[in-house]
Every structure is written in C-alpha cells, then in structure tokens.
Amino acid sequence: MEPAEQTNASASRFLFLLYIYPPYFGTAPVRNYNISKYLLQKSDRSFIYTTTNRPVSREAAESLGASVSFEQLPTLDYRTRIFRKKKHDHFKEIYKTNFLSQFIIKLFNSFPFQLIFSEGGLVYIFSGIYKGIKLVKKEKITHVYSSYRPLADHYIAFALKIVFPGLIWVADFRDLIIEPFYKQLFFPKLHQRLYRRIFRKANVLITISDGLAKHLHYYNPRVIVVKNGIDARPEKTATLTEKFTISYTGSMFLNKRNPEPLLKVISNLLQKGVIQREKIKICYAGKDGSYWQKLCKKYNLSDLLEDKGLVSQGDAKELQKVSNLNLLLSIASDEFEGILTGKLVEYLEAGSPVLGINVGRTDPEVIRILHVVNAGECFSDAEADLAGIEAFVVREYDHWLKTGYINKPVDTEALMSNFSTGNTMKELTNSIF
Length: 433
Hints:
The chain has 18 helices and 13 strands.
C-alpha cells in the first residue's frame, strides 16, 4: 500500500498542500502557484489541497489543466472567524504593534496553540491528514509538497510522511519560522528542537535565499535555494511620464521597514532646489496608508503622497512599471540576511530602477542580485548612507528631467538567466526525480 521512492518524473504523482493559493493576494500565493505549475508538468496526475477561506481561482485551475484536481479542506481558524463577511483578510500593521496584539500573535504562533488558532486550525489539519491518507493509497501519490506559511500544511505533510515513509516530501519556507527580528512566538529554543524533529523527516527543504538556507540547515542538511521565478521575458518599453514617480507597493511589517531616509532625502533636495515639488510624486499602494500619511506629514511631503490603498496584484505591477523608482524595503543583520521579499522579483520584472533601504545594515545578497541584473542599489537606513541615497535619486531624476522617460536599466538576459522559473527550479527537480 505504501508508495515507493520515484526517480521517473513521468510516473510521479503530487499532492500539494497549499493553504495560501490564488486568489489570495500577494507574492506567497504566486510562488505556490508557479512552483506547483512547474512541478505539475513533471507528473502525470496531481492534487491540490487548499482552504475553504477562499474560492479556488477558476483562472488558476484552468491554467493547470485537466490532470489536476482541487479540493478545499474545511477550515476553522481566525481568518474564518474575523474576516468572514469582509472583502479582505489582513490586519493593518498599526493594529499589530500594541502589547495585547503582540501577545496574541505570539500565542497563536506557539505550540500547541498554533494548531488550534493559527491559519488552518485543527479542522483543516485533521481533514488534510484523513483525506491525504486515503488519497495517497488510492492514487499512489509519490510526492507531497507543503509550504510555510502556514505551519498547518507542514503538519499534514509530516503526518503523511510518518504513515508513508516512502513519500518524497518537499517542505518550502518562504520565511523562517523562527528569526531574530520579529520574535513572534514564546520559547523559541524549545520550538527549534520541535521543528528539527519534524523537518528532518523531509527529503528536501527549499527556500528563497542563501541567507535563509543557512538557518534551515539546523533542521535538515538537505536544503536547496529556489528563488521566486518569472515565466516571461519583461518588456523594456520606455514610458513617458508627467511626474517623477517613486512607488512602494507593500506592507510595513510591524514597522520593521523604514522609508524615512528616502523621505528625508527628498525633503532636503526640495529645500536645496535640486528637485521641484510640482514635478515629483510619491505613490503608496497597500494597507498601511495611514503610516505613510503620518510620515509624509512629518517631512512636509503630504501634498506629494498619492495613497492608492489596497490594489490588485495586476494594478500593483502596472504601477511598478510606470514608476521612475521602485522602493524596496527590508531588514538585515550580521546574523540574518537574505530576506528577498516577493516585491524584489516584481520590481525586477518591471525593469525600473530599484532603490533598496534596509533597516540595520545592507544585505550582500540583495546587493549582489541588483548588481547582477543592473537594477539598482541597496543602502542601510543609517545616517551615513543618506549621501548615497541622495546621489541615486538625483541621478534618476536628472535622467527623467532630460528625457521625460522612465529609465529601464535592467539587463533582461541576466534576469532570465538568474530568475526564469526553469532555471530556479532546476536543482530541485534534479534532486526529487
């Protein structure tokens, strides 16, 4: 009854455990979709388990073909309770920073409460295990794929691996469960030991960067970096714009992102007359508009801010394409680097210059990627880096002032060589087939 280890890709059958899947908005569902779509091409029959919290995207389902079956696992979690009658299912970052919110977040992320309250919940997990066992037996499933976040998908995969040791389990980590910046669970050392016991059962762990991979080796020595990939070659169409536009499309992540150096630079350049107020615009698209409004007011830039609120991913990408600068905000330290936010690949696809600002210090991995594809520069939020940020902004502003067009410096050949889905997935497919 137990599936055997497979080396023949054409005889492989996948079960994907993907709570986060289109039509969920953001780079996480896009990563899950792209990876599943690629691996489906390597198998003859596959199944995707996802949540009832979102209807399955008809467009996504049809694009995967008839050899794929979807099933929505019954879900009773905080998203089900809180966002049942709302169009969105996320909290603004401003609501996550008070003491009570932080306590609840830590509780929900800590074992065993994460099983009950976090995304998925016990109903989702038990249903996934029960149905998964039946499916593996009936359909002779050879591979199971799970992705964090949430942990619920990994727990289901772990249970199936215990029942069927011959299953090839691929465990994906878009983020680390435990990392030094956010401290969002209780007793981290205890959890590290727990997760090591769980994930050493996986055949391979995959993640988005070398920086994250270093930490995952504690759980399992078999770690492969699979960057978020792109499928189509980006267009390098030069766009004529009325104003010099700087855009940020994303969240502030518990205020662990810092756009203040850029706003300080813009304020200084306006005062010195290097740039003209009527010729510049700051666009924000996301759920944290109140944060940007407050910050722009601090630097007397309120009249320059265009708060677009929440927009679709398609609209966000269109905004990135018609921006003179796309702002990339992240965080890094000596102990932890390689936080390649999903926005990075979107920005590279857009082709416009990327200005990275990191809380703490610069990230060598981000700098390396930006330089390889000739996309832009990355700085820290330290006072010493303000001059570099200013020079970068002035350079791009001058280019726009002289030409009226957005600069499109990205080397598309280097981009496709490093980020096409086929290339990013090559090592993984070689290891599991």
